[in-house]
Design goal:
The complex is a heterodimer of chains A (about 350) and B (about 375). With about 350 residues, chain A is of the alpha+beta class. In chain A, a hairpin with a 5-residue loop joins β12 and β13. Helices cover about 30% and strands about 20% of the residues of chain A. In chain A, the strands form 3 sheets. Chain A has a 7-stranded mixed sheet with strand order 8-10-7-11-9-12-13. Chain A is globular and about 70 Å long. Chain B is α/β, with parallel strands linked by helices and about 375 residues long. Chain B has one domain: Rossmann fold (3-Layer(aba) Sandwich), CATH 3.40.50. In chain B, about 40% of the residues lie in helices and about 20% in strands. Chain B has a 5-stranded parallel sheet with strand order 2-1-7-8-9, sandwiched between helices. In chain B, α1 packs parallel to α12, α2 runs parallel beside α16 and α7 crosses α13. The longest helix of chain B is centred in the middle third of the chain and has 16 residues. The chains are: A alpha+beta (about 350), B alpha/beta (about 375). Chains A and B meet through α8 and β13 of A and α1 and α16 of B.
C-alpha cells in the first residue's frame, strides 16, 4: 500500500487552466481547488479546520443574518469586480441593522470552462475585501455547472453580525418630520456597469462605489443611537429604496432635487442614455433616516469618515396616506419619485 | 452639466411663469396640446403644470410612437419573433406593450423567442452581420425623427449585401396625425375638445423643418410653436402661444431656432424618400385609419421589407373595452377618466399602450403626476 499523497502531482494551473466538471465533483480535483485557491486566499482559523461547517463562539445580544447572491455582468468593472462586490453587498446588508458584522460564508457556482486565472483574481479580491473589513469568510461551497448553464461565476454570500445594545434600526420606523440623509453621490455603480455593456460601451471615468459601510455605520450609531432607518440603495436606486421605506413606515417623503448629490459625469451619462440617476444602482451608499433634531450630529459624524465625506441632507419624511415619495424639482415644480418600473438594467450586482 | 442646466434653470422658470401668468387673460382659457410624448414627459418630470395659471391647460397629444401602434402590429411583431430562425430587434419600450391576449414581446422572449433590445438601427445591422444563419428583423417604430436611421440601415444592408436583414416598418407621420385630430368631430363639431394651439416637436422639425405646420396654422387658424424638450423650452413655447392667441395670430413660430430651420434636413429627407413611400392608410391606436400617415418600404427595397419577406397579414384587433387609450391619445379624455388607470392598469401590468412608454400620457401621469389629484381628495 502506498502512503496517501500529501500534495498533488500538478499544482492548479492558475495561468491557463480552466474550471472543469471535476472541480465540483467532490473528489480530489475539488479538494485541490479548495486547498490551493480558497484556503490559501481566505486563510483563517475557522476555514482552516476544513470541516463542513464553521464553528465559533458568539457574544450575547441580538444577532442579524443576511444573504445576497451576485450575478453581475461583466464580472470585472471599473472600481471592482464580483469578488469584492459579493463581500461588500452582504456586509452592508448586515450593517444596515446597525450591526457589527462577524462572519461571512461564500457559495460559488462556477461554469465549466471558466478560466482559473479569472477565478483566482476574483477570490483574491474577495479575500482582500474581507481582510479590509476585518470579517473572515469562515465556510463555503463550490459547485460546477456545464458550459452554457451558468455565466462564468455566481457568488452567494451570507453574513452574521451582532447589534449593539440600545440600537433599533428598522424600515418601519420613519416618522413624519424625520431627516433623510445619504452618505454621498448616487448612481455611480449603475453607470460604471452600464458603460461596459456590449451595445452601450461608452468611455467614462466613473468607478463603481462598491465599499463596505459597517465602519461608517459604527460611527453613525455611535453619534446618534436613535437612527430610525438605514438602508443601502442598491438595485432600483435611491428612488426604489425610499419607496420601500415609505411603504413600510406608512409615510410619505419630500426630496429636494437641488440637494441630491450626483456626480456631473453620472448625470451626463444618464442624460444621454435617457435614464434617471435616482434609479441607478449604488454599492457603497446608504440612506439614513433620523429625527430632525439629530440630523446635524449625524451629518457631522458622517463627514469625518472617508465614506461619508459627501453626506447630504436630501429631504424629509412627511405624513401622506398615499405613501408617495415626492420631489421639489430644481425647476420649481413637483413630481412623484415612483418605484422603478420594469428593469432599468439587468444583472447589476 | 453644461448645455443642459441652462435649460432647466429654476430662476428663469419662475420668471417665465410670472410672464405667462401676466399675459394669460383671466377671462378666457387656453387649451394647448403638446403633440409629442417627449413634451408630455418633460411637463410631468419637471412639474411644469404646477407653474402655470389655472386657465392654461396642457392637453397630451398622440406623439408617442409606442402608444399609437395598434395591437394588430404588435401581434405581427410577436408572430415574427416566434418564427424559427428569426431574431427580432426592438427598442426597449416596445417590449412591454401587450398585444392580443396580453402577450408582449417580453413574454414571447421568456417563452423562447429570440428578441433583442437595441438602442439604434445600427445595432440591428450588427446583429445581422454577426448571425448570418439567422433572419434578423428590425421592428422599426417612430415618427420622422427615427425614420432616417432606419433608411440608413436599409441602404447599409444593401451595400453590405446582407440577405438576412429586414425591417418591419411602422414609421408614422406627425402632420397627418395633427390634421386628423383637427378634423375629428370632437374638435370640429362637438366642441368636446377645445384646442387653441399646438406645441410642435422640435426633434421632428430638425428633420422635416417647420414648413409642414404652416398649413394647419393657416387652414385651421391654430398657432403652432415648435419647441425643444427641455422644460424652459416648453415654458417659453407656452408663453409664445398665449401671446399669439391674445393677439389673434395663428402662425408657426420656432422656439427651437438653435436647431430647426424652415426647410429641415434635406439630406435626411432625401434618404427617407429614397427608401420609403406613403401608405394609402395606416391604423393608429386611438385615431383609427389615418390616410397617408404611415411609411412603407418601396418596391425597390422589397428584399429588406419584413412584411413582404414573411408575408405578414395585418388584422385589426379592438382595444380592451374598458381601456381609454384611444380617447386619451386624441386628448378627449385624461388618464384619470379611465376606470382602469392605476387599478388594473399600472406600469408593471399595462393594459393599454399609454401606460407602457414613459412618453405615454398615462405612464407619465402615473409616474410623476399622481400627487396632484391625490392631494385634492
Amino acid at each position: 500500500m502506498t502512503k496517501p499523497r500529501t500534495g498533488y502531482i500538478h499544482p492548479l494551473d492558475l495561468k491557463h487552466g480552466k474550471v472543469d466538471m471535476t472541480h465540483g465533483s467532490g473528489g480530489r480535483a475539488m479538494a485541490q481547488l479548495v486547498e490551493e485557491l480558497f484556503l490559501t486566499a481566505f486563510d483563517n482559523e475557522y476555514l482552516n479546520q476544513q470541516n463542513d461547517q464553521a464553528s465559533f463562539l458568539v457574544p450575547g445580544g441580538r444577532m442579524v443574518m443576511a444573504t445576497d447572491s451576485h450575478v453581475v455582468s461583466p464580472l470585472f468593472f471599473p472600481g471592482g469586480d464580483i469578488g469584492c462586490l459579493s463581500v461588500h453587498g452582504t456586509l452592508n446588508d448586515v450593517a444596515m441593522a446597525g450591526a457589527v458584522p462577524l462572519y461571512l460564508s461564500a457559495g460559488f457556482i462556477l461554469e465549466e470552462g471558466f478560466p482559473l486565472a479569472d477565478l483566482a483574481r476574483i477570490v483574491a479580491s474577495m479575500a482582500q475585501a474581507a481582510r479590509d473589513a476585518g470579517v473572515p469568510i469562515v465556510t463555503g461551497d463550490t459547485k460546477v455547472v456545464e458550459r452554457g448553464k451558468g455565466d462564468g461565476v455566481f457568488i452567494t454570500t451570507t453574513g452574521i453580525g451582532i447589534v449593539p445594545a440600545g440600537i433599533n434600526i428598522s424600515g418601519e420606523r420613519a416618522r413624519p418630520g424625520d431627516a433623510i440623509i445619504v452618505n454621498g453621490p448616487i448612481g455611480d455603480h449603475g453607470v460604471a456597469i452600464m458603460s461596459l455593456r456590449e451595445n452601450l460601451s461608452f468611455g467614462t471615468a466613473i468607478q463603481s462605489d462598491t465599499a463596505a459601510l459597517h465602519g461608517l455605520v459604527a460611527k453613525m450609531v455611535g453619534a446618534v443611537p436613535d437612527i430610525h432607518v438605514l438602508r443601502d440603495p442598491t438595485r432600483g436606486g435611491l428612488a426604489t429604496t425610499l419607496n420601500e421605506i415609505a411603504r413600510q413606515s406608512g409615510v410619505g417623503m419630500m426630496l429636494r432635487e437641488t440637494a441630491l448629490p450626483i456626480r456631473a459625469e453620472v448625470r451626463a451619462a444618464c442624460e444621454f442614455l435617457g435614464l434617471d440617476p435616482l434609479y441607478s444602482a449604488n454599492e457603497g451608499k446608504l440612506v439614513a433616516i433620523c429625527p430632525q433634531a439629530d440630523a446635524d450630529a449625524l451629518l457631522a459624524a458622517m463627514h469625518k469618515h472617508p465614506l461619508g465625506k459627501e453626506a447630504a441632507l436630501i429631504g424629509e419624511v412627511i405624513a401622506d396616506s398615499h405613501h408617495f415619495v415626492q420631489m421639489e424639482t430644481a425647476f420649481g415644480g413637483r413630481r412623484i419619485v415612483d418605484w422603478l418600473t420594469g428593469e432599468q438594467l439587468p444583472r447589476i450586482c | 452639466m453644461k448645455y443642459i442646466d441652462e435649460f432647466r434653470d429654476g430662476t428663469l422658470a419662475k420668471k417665465l411663469a410670472a410672464d405667462i401668468r401676466r399675459e394669460a387673460q383671466p377671462t378666457r382659457s387656453y387649451s394647448l396640446m403638446e403633440f409629442c410624448g417627449g413634451h408630455t414627459h418633460a411637463i410631468f418630470r419637471y412639474g411644469i403644470q404646477d407653474l402655470l395659471p389655472e386657465n392654461v391647460h396642457m392637453i397630451h397629444g398622440p406623439g408617442c410612437p409606442v402608444c399609437v401602434l395598434p395591437i394588430g402590429r404588435v401581434d405581427n411583431a410577436i408572430a415574427l419573433a416566434n418564427m424559427p430562425g428569426v431574431i427580432l430587434c426592438s427598442y426597449g419600450d416596445m417590449l412591454r406593450v401587450p398585444g392580443s391576449n396580453r402577450v408582449s414581446l417580453l413574454k414571447a422572449k421568456a417563452g423562447g423567442a429570440d428578441v433583442r433590445m437595441i438602442y439604434s438601427s445600427a445595432d440591428a445591422l450588427k446583429i445581422a452581420q454577426d448571425n448570418p444563419d439567422k433572419q434578423v428583423v428590425f421592428f422599426a417604430i417612430g415618427f420622422e425623427t427615427t425614420t432616417p436611421p432606419t433608411a440608413v440601415a436599409i441602404l447599409q444592408a444593401q451595400k453590405l449585401g446582407l440577405t438576412n436583414f429586414s425591417v418591419f416598418s411602422n414609421h408614422v407621420l406627425t402632420p397627418s396625425a395633427i390634421a386628423n385630430i383637427l378634423e375629428s368631430p370632437e374638435v370640429r363639431h362637438l366642441g368636446l375638445l377645445p384646442l387653441d394651439g399646438f406645441i410642435g416637436p422640435a426633434h421632428v422639425s430638425t428633420v422635416i423643418g417647420s414648413r409642414p405646420y404652416e398649413y394647419f396654422a393657416y387652414e385651421y387658424q391654430r398657432p403652432v410653436v415648435i419647441a425643444g424638450f427641455e422644460p424652459l423650452d416648453v415654458m417659453q413655447a407656452i408663453l409664445m402661444l398665449v401671446r399669439q392667441l391674445n393677439e389673434g395670430r395663428a402662425e408657426v413660430e420656432n422656439e427651437f431656432a438653435r436647431a430647426v430651420t424652415r426647410e429641415g434636413n434635406l439630406k435626411a429627407l432625401d434618404m427617407v424618400a429614397e427608401v420609403f413611400e406613403l401608405r394609402r392608410t395606416f391604423e393608429w391606436r386611438g385615431l383609427g385609419l389615418v390616410p397617408y400617415s404611415g411609411l412603407k418600404i418601396k418596391e425597390k427595397y422589397a428584399a429588406f421589407d419584413a412584411e413582404r419577406r414573411f408575408e405578414l397579414v395585418y388584422r385589426t384587433v379592438p382595444d380592451n373595452k374598458a381601456c381609454e387609450c384611444g380617447a386619451i391619445i386624441r386628448g378627449v379624455k385624461k388618464p384619470l377618466d379611465c376606470k382602469l388607470f392605476g387599478t388594473v392598469c399600472t406600469p408593471e401590468n399595462p393594459i393599454g399602450s399609454c401606460m407602457v412608454s414613459s412618453e405615454g400620457a398615462c405612464a407619465a401621469y402615473y409616474t410623476y403626476g399622481r400627487y396632484r389629484d391625490a392631494n385634492n381628495h
